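wait is this the right file?? whatever heres the structure
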């Protein structure tokens, strides 16, 4: 390869030993292309004397030639062979561009070649094909069996669901809500977000375990309310792009509030009043709420003298 490059440098002064050769037969100056072609012809001459006509191959992709080279093979239209006679379809070829311009090699163009097909594409063996058929059959059996089991179970479901069924529905609904809604749920119900050790060693809050313990301890009416809250808790989310956006009228929370005659406007006004008060007043209220004897301790004591008769 080095001798070919040096010869090409002598033929064309535009090319140096460090610069790459033209990437395509139709790139570079006209003089440069002509001298690259001269090198290719020098390499072809000994083969022509032996009666062999090498195929012209380009290292460039087919779209780069713009349809000008009809007798040139491009990448993806052949498979390289290691030596002559590697398969019955092996033919001699020569590179006409790129760093290896003038290089001789052998290729195969047969699409169903038994020797080279497995080199450029994966072909499973008969044993692998039989194993894949077994796995595909087992997969279809499993999928269809699950569908049949669901259909048979659906037909036997009672008019009123039992406690285990309701617990299963409630916990599955809760599981689908996602992490953020799990935290909102704990805030609404006042559940303690207690951390526990995970299987990989880290400390985490197992919201599903907390919810499972709470749901199993609920009465029937509380489970119904739990399901209702599952459908409403996602409306507690305020979008980050507009956190001041008011609750839309078509949301579940707004519709249920109207249905049960909850005055959301009045509640918003009370919340605004609470949050607008000075922090000192809020601290005093919290302190008095925690210590009920604090107010009586501040009162002046009455006179201990007895009245005279």
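ok assuming it is, sequence goes like this
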């Amino acid at each position: 390869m080095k001798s070919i490059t040096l010869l090409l440098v002598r033929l064309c002064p535009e090319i140096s030993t460090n610069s790459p050769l033209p990437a395509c037969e139709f790139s570079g100056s006209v003089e440069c292309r002509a001298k690259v072609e001269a090198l290719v012809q020098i390499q072809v001459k000994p083969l022509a004397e032996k009666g062999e006509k090498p195929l012209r191959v380009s290292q460039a992709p087919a779209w780069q030639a713009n349809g000008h080279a009809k007798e040139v093979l491009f990448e993806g239209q052949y498979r390289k062979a290691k030596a002559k006679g590697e398969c019955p379809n092996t033919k001699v070829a020569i590179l006409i561009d790129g760093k290896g311009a003038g290089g001789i090699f052998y290729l195969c163009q047969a699409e169903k070649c038994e020797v080279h097909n497995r080199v450029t594409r994966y072909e499973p063996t008969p044993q692998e094909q039989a194993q894949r058929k077994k796995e595909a059959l087992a997969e279809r059996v499993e999928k269809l069996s699950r569908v049949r089991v669901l259909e048979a179970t659906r037909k036997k479901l009672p008019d009123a669901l039992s406690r285990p069924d309701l617990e299963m529905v409630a916990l599955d609904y809760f599981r689908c809500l996602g992490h953020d809604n799990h935290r909102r749920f704990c805030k609404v119900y006042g559940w303690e977000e207690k951390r526990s050790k995970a299987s990989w060693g880290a400390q985490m809050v197992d919201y599903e375990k907390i919810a499972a313990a709470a749901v199993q301890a609920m009465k029937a009416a509380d489970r119904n309310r739990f399901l209702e809250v599952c459908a409403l808790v996602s409306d507690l989310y305020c979008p980050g792009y507009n956190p001041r956006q008011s609750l839309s009228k078509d949301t579940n929370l707004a519709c249920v509030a109207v249905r049960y005659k909850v005055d959301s406007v009045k509640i918003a006004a009370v919340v605004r009043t609470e949050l607008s008060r000075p922090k000192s007043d809020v601290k005093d209220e919290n302190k008095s709420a925690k210590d009920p004897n604090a107010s009586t301790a501040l009162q002046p004591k009455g006179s201990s003298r007895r009245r005279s008769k």
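Residues 26 and 57 are 13 Å apart (CA to CA). so i think its the right one actually
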